[in-house]
Amino acid sequence: EAGVAQSPRYKIIEKRQSVAFWCNPISGHATLYWYQQILGQGPKLLIQFQNNGVVDDSQLPKDRFSAERLKGVDSTLKIQPAKLEDSAVYLCASSRDSGGTDTQYFGPGTRLTVL
Amino acid sequence: DQQVKQNSPSLSVQEGRISILNCDYTNSMFDYFLWYKKYPAEGPTFLISISSIKDKNEDGRFTVFLNKSAKHLSLHIVPSQPGDSAVYFCAASAGTGNQFYFGTGTSLTVIP
Q1: Is B46 on the interface with A (CB under 8 A)?
Q2: Which tens digits make up the pLDDT trace of B23-79?
Q3: Three-state secondary structure along B27-59?
Q4: Which chain B residue's Cα is nearest to A98?
Q5: From the CA of B104, how many Å to the nearest CA of chain A?
Q6: Given A22, A111, B1, B79, which residue has the most CB atoms within 10 angstroms?
Q7: Could you tell me which residue, B2 or B106, shows the higher pLDDT?
């Protein structure tokens, strides 16, 4: 079974630029998550999708972050414009069902550096 | 507000000995807990879970203990092996449909 795929693996941008990350979850997994992991901290949930609907985006900074999962499979996370404090690893995860007691499988992450 | 805490950023253990990683939580609604292991440049990998109806769950060399009254869980690795060297995260949720909250991680080094 293929794991969660993410691209790019690394990205360096200037502040105020925009950036987009892509995630392909494990086939058949209904739920997809985007996490932000700042250096020295644990992953923090940004947004959770169930199929193509948003379940929880309470911690997503909506003035600059957006995410979509149009066909209930792949997802993109966008930051526009980026700030220095957005430097972090962005992790995508998927689970078979709606989470909470369901194991999440993580991708390798995208390391973003904002200069 | 950090609802899940791992107060030891790092731990070093001799190969063959027991590794004990600790995790504390503040939210009494949490009833499902996971441990993840993370190697550099990789995403976290699920290791073991426990629900609040149990106080212990074992999987090979890995055992998780839950003390609900103390809001504390621990991961025991016996015997520790050099390949266990990684960052370990604990995570907690309030059950189905709720998000997981992660601790800050403990970096384990197993010395050959």
Answers
A1: yes
A2: 999 999 999 999 999 999 899 999 999 999 999 999 999 999 999 999 999 999 999
A3: CCCCCEEEEEEECCCCCCEEEEEEECCCCEEEE
A4: B97
A5: 4
A6: A111
A7: B106
- C-alpha to C-alpha distance for A13 and B44, rounded to whole angstroms: 25
Cβ contact (<8 Å) for B95 and A100?
yes
Which comes out higher in pLDDT, residue B41 or B111? B111
Are A103 and B34 in contact (CB < 8 Å)? Answer: yes
Query: What residues of chain A score a pLDDT lower than 50?
Result: none
B40–A contact, CB cutoff 8 A: no
Torsion of CA B91, B67, B23, B19, to 10 degrees: -110
Read off the tokens for A75. 């997802």
In 3D space, the residue among A40, A41, A18, A20 whose CA is nearest the CA of residue A92 turns out to be A20
For residues A48 and A95, give the distance between their C-alpha atoms in angstroms, rounded to a whole number.
11
CA distances from residue B74 to A76, B8, B63, B107 in whole angstroms, order as listed: 36, 12, 8, 14
